[in-house]
Amino acid sequence: MALQLVHRDKISIHRKKNYWHLFQERLIRDSKRVAGLYQQLKNLSTRSSFYELHDFGSAVVSGAEEGIGEYFVKIGIGSPPVDQFMVVDTGSDVTWVQCKPCTQCYSQADPIFDPAGSASFTRVSCDSVACGLLDQAGECGSGQCQYEVTYEDGSYTKGTLALENLKFGSTEVQNVAIGCGHHNLGLFAWASGLLGLGGGVMSLVGQLGGQTGGAFGYCLASSGSDLDGSLVFGRDAGIPTGAIWVPLVRNPLNPSFYYVGLVGLGVGGTRVLVPEEVFQLSEYGDGGAILDTGTAVTRLPVRAYEALREVFVNATIGFPRADSVSLFDTCYDLSGFGTVRVPTISFFFSNGPELTLPAKNYLIPVDVHGTFCLAFAPSDSGLSIVGNIQQKGIQISFDTVNGLAGFGPDTC
To answer: Where are its TM segments located (predicted)?
Structure first.
């Protein structure tokens, strides 16, 4: 079963904002997200009941104006289940929701979850296995496990760790460890909380483990599309026929991120001259390339970005250039064109697979006047981040048991 994945624009309370304003806000959020990821990795590099589930899923909604994260999913929490819009984040582990009594909570679209109204809500003790698995466990309060997650942009959530039932469509998942957040602050506005789909043991994927075969997948619809995306769990769901499979690369210093074996870039079918080591993950946890739903624009190390840009610009010399826009330095004035043909851009992965992107995934409109920009950006960090603009319309699947990521045809 597939759950609906929705882009945040569709549930925004700010629909009257113009395109330029929304675009600027999105890039500001994106810069904060990326800065946080880089800081998180920098900090890390300095550190040395059973039941059977069938495949299930949910729709993914775009949340482009609501705060941190770009895509939302609606799930039911508690017994009886109360629907809540949650940010979908493949770069985080702890799933949490704002809870009553709320000492400090931001505004959200749905009513704040009240654990007193749920028959399945159970607080976790301090000596429990789940409490011991938290990366950032707070003090033990009255024998109850307190959790705290602080994000590098200054956002945070604090509260009580609990076991609760989550409902995805018609499928109920029992006794999932989630955070019941009584103190929450940051860029989560209008979402009820966050659904952690990272690679760590406390993520939803990690907790489900063998019950779903360690597999899940998603398809992100474009923000301007009438269609919604999808999020699916289970080995027999969401793994498309004809997908290309690439190896996942494990970073012991940050198991939450999904690293892929990126080795090169292509323009117009020709490999860009960038050494493979530019994309490699070092033994100290630096570099590498991750897939991230919460980042919009793909970031590349400066050397890789400049090489890609040079080849792309030389291949589009007949198009009139436009001024730079925000973090985009390669833009075109296409207002006088009905249609244009642009060179393809590809990602090359270890062991040979090549993923060729559709044009809408790398040359994007930045205003309503016909200005389009190359949707890549340079970074001084060695980390490459494949953002959600480049992921749109591609069925992306993770097989964590076999250490593979799949890229398949559009099944949104």
So the answer is: none
Tens digits of per-residue pLDDT, 371-395? 999 999 998 889 999 999 999 999 9
Q: pTM value?
A: 0.86
CA nearest 202: which of 122, 281, 147, 142? 147
Contact 68, 155 (CB under 8 A): yes
Active site annotation includes 114: no
Residue 339 makes CB contacts below 8 A (sequence gap 6+) with none
Nearest 5°: phi and psi at 354? -130, 130
Q: Is the pLDDT score of 143 beyond 80?
A: yes
DSSP 8-state secondary structure symbol assigned to residue 388: H
Residue type, 362: Y
**Both structure tokens of 267:** 């323009």
- Cβ atoms of 75 and 5 within 8 Å: the answer is no
Catalytic: 329?
A: no
List the catalytic residue out of 89, 153, 228, 399: 89
What CATH architecture is 244-408? Beta Barrel (2.40)
3-state secondary structure of 45: helix
Does residue 57 contact residue 1 with C-beta atoms inside 8 Å?
yes
Does domain 3-233 bear CATH number 2.40.70.10?
yes
3-233 shares its CATH topology with 244-408: yes
* The pair of three-digit structure tokens given for residue 405, joined into one six-digit string: 């990521």
> 45 near 286, Cβ under 8 Å?
yes
